[in-house]
């Protein structure tokens, strides 16, 4: 009977890209068999996570080349890509994924996404090695890469993230996700969409993407009319799923689901009943940004999407803690601007929640 091993792995970058490390742990029946942690110089979070996966699989394979291995990671991106459900667009990620796939027989490996708190062992040892070098012996580690990029002459891809206009659920702050309710724009929402369309046409964008939900499609239609761009609809830009909470007010959710609501307020990994966690939305938002930036280098891209997508992307781009999204709110038909440099996908926030065009 084949041995059953569990690998947990994580990667972290302080700066994204910045000083990075990975950690991986191999277990059997709950007992730790091996720990692996190493600094890898300057790298992105995604690269560090893949390096952790490679280290964990390598360690498990060396223990038993015929074992069944369950890989458990809190990186939705890596789990979905390695499971074959998400495409791998970035060439560096492809190389690392191919390397990981060649370590152990693929039919013996399964991948499972876990909340961040269940991956604390791997997270702890990677942070230990990042903190481990004596400060007196440490050379200064570059963290500011943007300054060099701004004077390099390399043309970034510019992405304008537009939240849709107001719906009937917006003023009361009701949960409005990707569920079947799918509200349309109100008269105020239509006016907001027309105002942002007038602003966007001044930017002379090259492409227009949108979530498939009605409120984003109606907003994108106004932008399409002003820019003469065809709407490219992609599911990856859809709003977070709130599951059973969709359409409910905060008071209703806290009364009907008191325990679940407390967990949801306490962190980004909690999944509402039949819904989606903020961590999952973050991974999806970054996957969408990576995809459009890689496929359209140097272009100006408009994406009509949602509050959840935009605020999780902003937090990830500036390297803030995941919980920082609880201090970010994106207004209807505001503009959030990011730049992505094609050479290594360095991302920078250029503007957030701009709404001057709505004050006229």
TrEMBL record:
RNase H type-1 domain segment(s): 1-139
PANTHER family noted in UniProt: BROAD-SPECIFICITY PHOSPHATASE YOR283W-RELATED, HISTIDINE PHOSPHATASE FAMILY PROTEIN-RELATED
InterPro entries in UniProt: His_Pase_superF_clade-1, His_PPase_superfam, PGM_Phosphatase, RNaseH-like_sf, RNaseH_domain, RNaseH_sf
The organism's taxonomic lineage, starting at the top: unclassified sequences, metagenomes, ecological metagenomes
GO cellular component: cytoplasm
GO molecular function: nucleic acid binding; phosphatase activity; RNA-DNA hybrid ribonuclease activity
Protein name, per record: Unannotated protein
PROSITE patterns noted in UniProt: RNASE_H_1 (PS50879)
């Amino acid at each position: 009977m084949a041995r059953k091993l569990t690998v947990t792995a994580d990667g972290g970058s302080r700066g994204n890209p910045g000083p990075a490390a990975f950690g991986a742990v191999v277990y059997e029946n709950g007992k730790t068999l091996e720990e692996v942690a190493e600094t890898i110089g300057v790298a992105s979070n995604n690269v560090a996570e893949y390096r952790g996966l490679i280290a964990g699989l390598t360690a498990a394979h060396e223990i038993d080349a015929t074992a069944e291995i369950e890989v458990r990671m809190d990186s939705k991106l890596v789990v979905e890509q390695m499971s074959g459900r998400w495409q791998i667009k970035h060439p560096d990620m492809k190389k690392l994924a191919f390397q990981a796939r060649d370590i152990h027989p693929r039919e013996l490996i399964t991948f499972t996404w876990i909340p961040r708190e269940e991956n604390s062992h791997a997270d702890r040892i990677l942070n230990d090695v990042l903190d481990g070098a004596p400060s007196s012996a440490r050379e200064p580690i570059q963290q500011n890469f943007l300054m060099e990029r701004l004077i390099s002459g390399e043309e970034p891809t510019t992405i304008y993230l537009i939240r849709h206009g107001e719906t009937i659920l917006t003023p009361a702050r009701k949960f409005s996700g990707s569920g079947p309710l799918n509200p349309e724009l109100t008269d105020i929402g239509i006016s907001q969409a027309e105002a942002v369309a007038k602003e966007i046409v001044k930017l002379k964008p090259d492409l227009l993407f949108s979530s498939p939900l009605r409120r984003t499609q109606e907003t994108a239609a106004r932008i399409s009319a002003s820019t003469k761009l065809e709407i490219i609809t992609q599911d990856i830009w859809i709003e977070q799923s709130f599951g059973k909470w969709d359409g409910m007010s905060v008071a209703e959710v806290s009364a009907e689901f008191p325990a679940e609501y407390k967990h949801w307020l306490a962190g980004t990994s909690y999944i509402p009943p039949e819904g989606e966690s903020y961590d999952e939305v973050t991974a999806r938002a970054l996957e969408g940004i990576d995809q459009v930036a890689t496929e359209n280098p140097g272009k100006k891209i408009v994406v009509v999407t949602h509050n959840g997508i935009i605020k999780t992307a902003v937090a990830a781009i500036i390297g803030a803690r995941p919980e920082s999204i609880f201090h970010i709110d994106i207004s209807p038909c505001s503009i959030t601007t990011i730049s992505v440099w094609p050479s290594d996908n360095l991302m920078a926030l250029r503007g957030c929640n701009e709404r001057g065009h709505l004050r006229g």
